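User: Can you fold this complex?
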Amino acid sequence: MIQFFHVAKRYPGGQTALEDLTFEIARGQFVFLTGASGAGKTTLLRLIFREEVPSDGQILVNGRNVASIPQSKIPYLRRTIGVVFQDFRLIPRKTVFENVTYLPRVLGIPLKTQKQMAYTALRRVGLAHRLNAFPPELSGGEQQRVAIARALINEPDILIADEPTGNLDPDLSREILRLFLEVNLRGTTVILATHDRDTIQRIGRRVITLDRGRLVSDLEIDGSDPPSLDPAEEPAAADPEPSPSETATAAEPAEEGT
Amino acid sequence: MSFLQAVRYFFREALLNLVRSWKVSLLAILTITVSLFLGGAFLLVTGNLAESAERWRGEMRVVVYLQPDTSAAELSRLAAEARAAAGVSSVEAVSPAEARERFHQVFPGLSNLVEGWEKEPLPASLEIGLAERAARPPEVKAWLDRWRGRPEVTMIDDDREWLGQLETAVAVVRGIGLALAGGLLAAAIFIIASIIRLTAFLHHEEISIMRLVGATEFFIRGPFYAEGLLQGLIGGGLASGALYTAFRVFEERSRSTLFSSLLATEFLSPRQVAFLIVLGGIAGLLGAVVSLRRESL
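Assistant: Here's the predicted assembly.
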């Protein structure tokens, strides 16, 4: 699914962000990317969705060489990748519905379908009832869940998260991580960058460690306290089953679809 | 997304932007309005002047004013003499009484100027129409110069002299107008470009999200192009409306004066109005293109 071959990233000033990285992430894997600040985690993630271009090497995402795809094809690559950031990157003056439906709008999906997609995505993160709220009205954890819903709205093949719990307290962090694990359980490849070693130790999974731009370890570890996840269960953070009247309201959010 | 869907989305977003930041949008629209209003006003005035000049060229004549004591018999003799000359298409002998009567008709507001005189205040004259072909040749000029030297003649008013001057003036005014309107339009394009760059900057977070989720550049830039186009078209429409209002007010106030007959006989043709509006649209679009050309947004 994602393959790095001797990838290096050097900036014009001569600063080296990544050096000779070679690894592969299979479809459906959950991978922690860790390392100290400045180790190159963010750069690596940005290379996957072609926000950065490697100075050397090749990167294959779903069989496509992202280093050499033409500028005009980048949007099509990005539609298969969901991205979540530490600072949420929600537009404060747009409603939750508008924030999560950027991609459906870009794709020209009819408003009615957009509403259904938004409802489904928000329900997965337990926020279907906040469809018409504005981000400043939400807590940090809720804002991050909206950002995750935005990343998930198109059922992407890959979900990339850059320090998604960096701005959240430990309880909320657990909740968000649990969401990522659930997303992964449904088949989405998840790459999560974090410098929180305790979380990694607790949850386990594959861990790629970077140090000053170099890959220093790539291990599969068992978690000390992995959360119990049952794919048949509703997500822990999901909304309680809405009453018919709630469903009607939620299925018909505000008319403004822009 | 189909092209039509995208265009509909662009214009909806552009309209929302215009409404949301109406103050800056208004500035852009008014700049376009002012420049196109001025350009349109020059077009209107010079168009009317040129048309008047053209009309007068068809009615061109030379008026030979005679001595105040010219008798009726002498008037008809001179008229017959003029009629015989080559290149003369018509000669009308105007007696002092007829001249006074005409003054009444043409300038009713100034009638009292020619009333209450002991003698007739206006002299007798010969109104000589020149054949189109003979209007310019030097023989006509030489013939008129001979008339100028005759004792019965006090002065000769040759339409052709001031008509030539009028045509030069029209050309100069048109040139100045075009330069002024062009300069203002350039300023309007610059202002629209700045405003759109500012709008793009204000939306840079949203743009980065759109790019992140996989929006194409066409989709990202489209609303800005639509915004520039709309600002320009609205500006052009407002300029045409303002020009029409100004024209009507001017026409109302200056009815039956020399000015109205010179400057405000006819409004711009529908094609010229459409040209003004389209020009506004092009200016707006150009502003958007200029502002987003090298910007990576």
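Chain B touches chain A at residues 1-2, 5-6, 9, 12-13, 16, 205-206, 208-217, 219 (CB under 8 Å). Strands of chain B lie at 61-66, 88-94, 125-130, 153-158.
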